[in-house]
Write a structure and sequence with these properties.
The radius of gyration is 28 Å and the shape is rod-shaped. It is mainly α and 85 residues long. The N and C termini lie far apart (73 Å). The chain has two domains: 33 residues, no CATH class; 39 residues. Helices cover 71% and strands 0% of the residues.
């Protein structure tokens, strides 16, 4: 479970949130607290890898589509050329 808070001055609000969280869910321990920027930067490398793989697969798909379109146009132009002869 993740709890995300927002503050105007960038301070860690975990000291103010711990009592409310403990009252809300008494059986759960309070999770490790950190700033949002730290939380986001910890997950950034996996997102970069996912985006890199997605871009790679998209590039391969575009290449295969271009080769397929070229093949269809080439085949139809050869057939039209043979009909004219």
């Amino acid at each position: 479970m993740s709890i995300v808070t927002r503050s105007r001055n960038g301070a860690n609000l975990s000291n103010e949130i711990k009592p409310q969280f403990g009252a809300l869910i008494a059986t759960s321990p309070f999770p490790r607290s950190s700033l949002w920027t730290c939380w986001f930067l910890d997950r950034l490398p996996t997102r970069r890898l996912n985006m890199l793989l997605l871009g790679l697969f998209a590039g391969v798909a575009m290449l295969l589509a271009a080769i397929g379109i070229y093949g269809v146009i080439s085949h139809s132009s050869v057939n039209e050329h043979m009909k004219l002869d």
